[in-house]
């Protein structure tokens, strides 16, 4: 699946949308993802099934793919190939600020590149290796250039045997999906919405407006065009995204389906339950707030007893929840 093209460093949902039915196959990018996770992730993740997290990671991958479902030029298909625990955690670097210890993302990324970029033992289905950490990450934004450090290097897809990135995820709520989507976009040539030279106009909304991901879970038109330009520049090569990776599970996942199959509810999951936690199977009453958010209500509450429901800090409905106009909820927004 791999051919190493060093020049890339320089130049370079869970169902098919209506657009994909007529889009040229050459405009489809298929990426195989491999997740390695650390001990901190294991300490807090609650969905260890059959002694692995592949079901959770498959749904996480589907959640990230949905950020690209409305792309005007490309079809982005993401597949979880497999996952495993990181063998050598001495490669993980940390920084302490006050009482909080963070994963030092730039230094750790450098170590991971040394492990995986030219690793001949990786399956040919693997295009990108992501570390999934249970520690919050310390990244850097250059004040001088606006460059981001600690995330997957821009336009480095198909370089070596695998590109590398890092996400933080709590192993419960799929909160790493947005940062996963940000780094897939970076790998595929998306410009940042930061108003800097050779980037896109400044925006406080779209996915690429912040190193953590913007409030709007979609790409700006400018970022979409930059991905299309990158794609056109390299499409004639024998690229890693042109074949179809074999998934760890037969079916793709989404958070809403994942929770539904396990009879879990966002209101009982939001307070960081610990490993061993079992979902109750009950559906707590909620007071909807817009299309894709809801206030949690206390036990026994009904829709007519608003006083029993919270009045602030609504929870996002699970990504993939159907919403108005045949759309889907992504990151608390109907898109």
From TrEMBL:
<dbReference type="GO" id="GO:0004222">
    <property type="term" value="F:metalloendopeptidase activity"/>
</dbReference>
<keyword id="KW-0378">Hydrolase</keyword>
<dbReference type="GO" id="GO:0006508">
    <property type="term" value="P:proteolysis"/>
</dbReference>
<feature type="domain" description="Peptidase M12B">
    <location>
        <begin position="113"/>
        <end position="237"/>
    </location>
</feature>
<feature type="signal peptide">
    <location>
        <begin position="1"/>
        <end position="18"/>
    </location>
</feature>
<dbReference type="Pfam" id="PF01421">
    <property type="entry name" value="Reprolysin"/>
</dbReference>
<protein>
    <submittedName>
        <fullName>Putative tick metalloprotease 41</fullName>
    </submittedName>
</protein>
<keyword id="KW-0732">Signal</keyword>
<dbReference type="InterPro" id="IPR001590">
    <property type="entry name" value="Peptidase_M12B"/>
</dbReference>
<dbReference type="InterPro" id="IPR024079">
    <property type="entry name" value="MetalloPept_cat_dom_sf"/>
</dbReference>
<keyword id="KW-0482">Metalloprotease</keyword>
<keyword id="KW-0645">Protease</keyword>
């Amino acid at each position: 699946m791999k051919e190493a093209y060093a020049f890339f460093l320089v130049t370079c949902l869970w169902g098919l949308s209506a657009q994909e039915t007529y889009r040229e196959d050459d405009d489809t990018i298929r990426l195989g993802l491999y997740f390695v996770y650390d001990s901190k992730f294991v300490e807090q993740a609650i969905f260890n099934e059959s002694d692995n997290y592949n079901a959770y990671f498959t749904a996480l991958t589907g959640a990230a793919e949905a950020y690209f479902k409305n792309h005007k030029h490309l079809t982005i298909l993401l597949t979880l190939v497999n996952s495993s625990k990181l063998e050598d955690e001495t490669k993980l670097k940390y920084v302490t600020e006050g009482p909080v210890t963070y994963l030092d993302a730039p230094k750790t990324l450098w170590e991971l590149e040394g492990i995986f970029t030219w690793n001949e033992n990786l399956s040919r289905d693997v295009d990108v290796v992501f570390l999934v950490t249970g520690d919050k990450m310390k990244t850097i934004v250059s004040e001088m250039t606006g460059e981001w450090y600690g995330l997957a290097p821009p336009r480095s897809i198909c370089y070596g045997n695998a590109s590398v990135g890092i996400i933080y995820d709590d192993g419960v709520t799929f909160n790493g999906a947005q940062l996963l989507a940000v780094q897939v976009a970076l790998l595929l040539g998306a410009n940042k919405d930061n108003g800097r030279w050779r980037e896109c106009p400044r925006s406080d909304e779209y996915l690429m407006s912040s190193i953590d991901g913007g409030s709007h879970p979609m790409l700006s038109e400018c970022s979409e065009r930059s991905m299309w330009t990158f794609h056109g520049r390299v499409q004639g090569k024998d690229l890693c995204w042109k074949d179809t990776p074999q998934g760890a599970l037969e079916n793709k996942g989404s958070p809403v389906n994942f929770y539904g199959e396990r009879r879990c509810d966002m209101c009982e999951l939001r307070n960081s339950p610990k490993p061993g936690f079992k979902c109750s199977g009950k559906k707590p009453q909620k007071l909807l707030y817009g299309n894709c958010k809801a206030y949690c209500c206390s036990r026994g509450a009904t829709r007519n007893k608003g006083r029993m429901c919270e009045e602030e800090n609504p929870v996002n409905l699970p990504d993939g929840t159907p919403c108005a106009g045949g759309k889907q909820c992504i990151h608390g927004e109907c898109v």
